[in-house]
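If you are new to this repository, start here. Below is one unmodified record pulled from the training split, so you can see the exact layout before writing a loader.
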Amino acid sequence: MFTRRRDKEKQGSSAALRRTVLAAAGALLLVAALPSSAGAAGGQFTFSRNDGSVDALFAPPNDVCLPLSGGAAHASNDTDATAFVFLDGGCSQLSAIVGVGGTWDQYNPPPQPAYSVRFGSSG
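And here is the target side for that same chain:
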C-alpha cells in the first residue's frame, strides 16, 4: 500500500511539471510570434544641406548607420527614437544626440556638417 501511494504522488508531481513546462513553452512561442516595433523609429528625420536642399528619412531603422547624402547642416528629429548625429559617414565621430522632437545644426562650434545618423537608445 505504501508503494502505491508514492507512485501516485510521483505521477501527480510529474504531470504538474509537464503542465508547467508546456505552459512556459507556449508563452515563449506567443512572445516570439508577436511583431516587434523595435526595428524602426516611427516618424521622419528631416535634414537640410548647406545648399538649401532638403531631404528626409522616413521610419528609419534603429541601430543602423544611415548616410546623410550631401551632408546635413540642420536636422529635425520628428521620430519616436533618439537620433545620434555623426560628423563622418561611418557613425564613429559623434557630433550630437538629438532627442525626440529636437533639432540640430552645424553652427554649434565648430561648424561642421553631419554625414551619418543612427537611431535608437545608444550611439
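Two things worth knowing about this chain: The domain at 43-120 is CATH 2.60.20.10 (Gamma-B Crystallin; domain 1). Confidence is low (pLDDT under 50) at residues 25-37.
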